[in-house]
Structure formats: C-alpha cells, structure tokens
C-alpha cells in the first residue's frame, strides 16, 4: 500500500508445477472494512479481462487492528 491509498489490492494466482498463472485481481476499500467495525467476511469477485465475465471469487476474512 502507498501513503494515502485506502484500497487493498488483491492478485490471485494458481500454483502450477511450472510457474504460476494469473487468475484475477480485485480491490477492497479499507474504508468499507472500517465502516463494518473493522472486520470483513465476504466473497469478492475476480473479474475476467476487461471486466467481461468472471474468473470466480475469492473468500476474504479480514480484520483491521
């Protein structure tokens, strides 16, 4: 994270024997977590290239401390 940035950037990769491939990425607002009492437990969509469709979801369980 960079100073003044209130966004958590998530990148998801598969784990192949040879290298790794990008599955997708997402962003989560830290302000949203703060407004929810400092905890987040939700599924976040991983949009496909150019936002056309979806590559699935990732389950995030976050707690700000």
Keyphrases for this structure?
single chain; two-stranded antiparallel sheet; mainly beta; 65 residues; two-stranded antiparallel ribbon
Folded structure, characterized:
With 65 residues, the chain is mainly beta. It is 9% helix and 52% strand. It has one helix spanning 30-35; strands at 7-13, 22-29, 39-47, 54-63. The longest helix is centred in the middle third of the chain and has 6 residues, at 30-35.
Summarize the SSE layout with pairings.
Blueprint (H helix, E strand, L loop, with lengths): L6 E7 L8 E8 H6 L3 E9 L6 E10 L2
Antiparallel strand pairs: 1-2, 3-4
Low-confidence stretches: none
Which strand order do you get reading across the main beta sheet? Answer: 1-2
Summed over residues and divided by their number, the pLDDT gives a mean of: 83
In N-to-C order, the SSE pattern is EEHEE
Strand-residue fraction?
Answer: over 45%
The largest β sheet comes out as: 2 strands, antiparallel
What coarse outline follows from CA principal-axis ratios? Answer: elongated
Kindly state the number of beta strands: 4
**Rg:** 14 Å
Helix fraction, binned, reads under 10%
Helix-strand makeup class: mainly beta
Work out the helix count: 1
- The end-to-end distance, rounded to whole angstroms, is 16 Å
């Amino acid at each position: 994270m960079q100073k003044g940035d209130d966004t958590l950037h998530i990148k998801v990769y598969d784990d192949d024997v040879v290298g790794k491939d990008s599955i997708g990425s997402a962003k989560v607002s830290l302000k949203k977590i703060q407004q929810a009492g400092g905890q987040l437990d939700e599924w976040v969509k991983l949009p496909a290239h150019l936002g056309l469709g979806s590559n699935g979801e990732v389950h995030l369980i976050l707690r700000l401390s």
